């Protein structure tokens, strides 16, 4: 493996081609080639930098074919322009390191550490035993869509008919289809930062232009209505809001959403894509407000939700879209040519999940109680570290922590730390803690920690983070 010293970089090569992914800059010390079932770990050195996270795999099939024949194996510009998800890159890398015997503490993936509730899992098992294993209606089984309608009415104050609901293979698919259905080439998609990693790339897939609006940690990473108004043009087509937020855990209060709604009402072309996947993971006194429930916003809003987070059903792949009938029908047409309906088994489990009671009942409440305890521990423990800034999350299970006071520091045996990617790499390489650099979410001053893991693991992680930062203080002013 070729080596270079200086700033640490991991580059990822997938079936989509060679792209830089951790971070998006400068000089590589190695490469991580992500190909299904073909990733093997090796160790390398970069100058005086000992690196445990250099990995290699067999050559990319397309590259091999291109070099051995005259066949044009080039990839489309649309695919080549996409950035890989750093969350997935780091999650996969951490898992590979663990499999190789490196004891990595994994705080990268946004996945509950709880099992799917027993009654929900049993509903899926029963579906298999009863032979409910065939294709379903493209839009989802009627039983599930009716249950979603009841949920939206009782919990969110929204009245929808089953033909206004589209069940998909996860909320990510629901989001992408919504973007593709309403955006035309040249349209602008307004995205407050920090943002979930896929929003900008989904906009680009629709040949739309992402317009990112930065927010401030001092304002709890909430969108300032004045900033929104200043960015809107005749090309503005879609505003994406996520509350509770990934990656910040911020929750938009109803009063702020009402201010945003009044601005949106002035722009006839502007729609809202409201990502509400974390709505049940919320900490009192914060409360969730569905954007579509605001005055004059029902017809303008596409609401996306799902089962992965609140019900610990990430592997079941089940999400849904609710919105105006003609837009939902357009998304359904798209889904019919892409994947068809969601898993019949997962849909039966979804019915059982919605039957647990309001907001998931006691089962989900117990999970939220555990998340809150973990959040409180991290906010207190990490907040005591000199130079660290934290906005206390009101929902979800993430901390988006400002470590920028440590940028410019020099780590012995590692090198210069000058951004979120190099700092995240330092934590992983030298202290075996995997977190996601903030530049993946549009804010390079921070790093995201997922606290969807046990308190014992988090306590160990905090100690490692403390030890990692101690030697850096001598080289910077914090």
From TrEMBL:
InterPro entries: Aminotransferase_I/II_large (IPR004839), AspAT/PAT-like (IPR050596), NHTrfase_class1_PyrdxlP-BS (IPR004838). Coiled coil: none annotated. Pathway: Amino-acid biosynthesis; L-phenylalanine biosynthesis; L-arogenate from prephenate (L-Glu route): step 1/1; Amino-acid biosynthesis; L-phenylalanine biosynthesis; L-arogenate from prephenate (L-Asp route): step 1/1. Keywords: Aminotransferase, Pyridoxal phosphate, Transferase. PROSITE patterns: AA_TRANSFER_CLASS_1 (PS00105). The keyword ATP-binding does not apply. GO terms for molecular function: aspartate-prephenate aminotransferase activity; glutamate-prephenate aminotransferase activity; L-aspartate:2-oxoglutarate aminotransferase activity; pyridoxal phosphate binding. Residues 103-465 form the Aminotransferase class I/classII large domain. The keyword Transferase applies. Its cofactor is pyridoxal 5'-phosphate. GO terms for biological process: aromatic amino acid family biosynthetic process, prephenate pathway. CDD domains: AAT_like. It comes from the Eukaryota. Belongs to the class-I pyridoxal-phosphate-dependent aminotransferase family. This is Bifunctional aspartate aminotransferase and glutamate/aspartate-prephenate aminotransferase.
């Amino acid at each position: 493996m070729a080596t270079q010293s200086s700033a640490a970089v991991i580059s990822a090569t997938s079936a989509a081609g060679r792209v830089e992914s951790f971070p998006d800059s400068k000089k590589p010390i190695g490469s991580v080639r992500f190909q299904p079932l073909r990733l093997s770990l090796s160790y390398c050195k970069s100058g005086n930098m000992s690196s445990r996270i250099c990995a290699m795999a067999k050559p990319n099939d397309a590259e091999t074919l291109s070099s051995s024949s005259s066949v044009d194996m080039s990839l489309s510009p649309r695919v080549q322009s996409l950035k890989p998800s750093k969350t997935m890159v780091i999650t996969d890398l951490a898992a590979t390191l663990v499999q190789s015997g490196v004891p990595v503490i994994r705080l990268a993936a946004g996945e509950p550490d709880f099992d799917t509730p027993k009654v929900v899992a049993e509903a899926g098992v029963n579906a298999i035993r009863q032979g409910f294993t065939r294709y379903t209606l493209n839009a989802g089984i009627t039983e599930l869509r009716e249950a979603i309608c009841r949920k939206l009415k009782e919990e969110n104050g929204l009245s929808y008919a089953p033909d206004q609901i589209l069940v998909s293979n996860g909320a990510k698919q629901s989001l992408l289809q919504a973007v593709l259905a309403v955006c035309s080439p040249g349209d602008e998609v307004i995205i407050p930062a920090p943002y979930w990693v896929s929003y900008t790339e989904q906009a680009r897939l629709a040949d739309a232009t992402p317009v990112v609006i930065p927010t401030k940690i001092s304002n709890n990473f909430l969108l300032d209505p004045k900033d929104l108004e200043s960015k809107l043009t005749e090309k503005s087509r879609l505003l994406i809001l996520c509350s509770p937020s990934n990656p910040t855990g911020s929750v938009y209060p109803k009063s702020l959403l009402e201010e945003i709604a009044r601005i949106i009402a002035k722009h006839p072309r502007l729609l809202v894509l409201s990502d509400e996947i974390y709505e049940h993971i919320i900490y009192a006194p914060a409360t969730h407000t569905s954007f579509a429930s605001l005055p004059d916003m029902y017809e303008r809003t596409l609401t996306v939700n799902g089962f992965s987070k609140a019900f610990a059903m990430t592997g079941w792949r089940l999400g849904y879209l609710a919105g105006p009938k003609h837009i939902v029908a357009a998304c359904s047409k798209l889904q019919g040519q892409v994947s068809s309906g969601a898993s019949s088994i997962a849909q039966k489990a979804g019915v059982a999940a919605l039957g647990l009671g309001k907001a998931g009942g006691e089962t989900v409440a117990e999970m939220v109680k555990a998340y809150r305890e973990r959040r409180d521990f991290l906010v207190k423990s990490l907040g005591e570290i000199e130079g660290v800034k934290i906005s206390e999350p009101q929902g979800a299970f993430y901390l988006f922590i400002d470590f920028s006071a440590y940028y410019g520091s020099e780590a012995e045996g590692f090198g210069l730390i000058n951004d979120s990617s190099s700092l995240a790499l330092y934590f992983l390489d030298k202290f075996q803690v995997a977190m996601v650099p903030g530049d993946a979410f549009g804010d390079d001053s921070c790093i995201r920690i997922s606290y969807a893991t046990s308190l014992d693991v988090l306590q160990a992680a905090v100690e490692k983070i403390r030890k990692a930062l101690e030697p850096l203080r001598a080289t910077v002013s914090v």
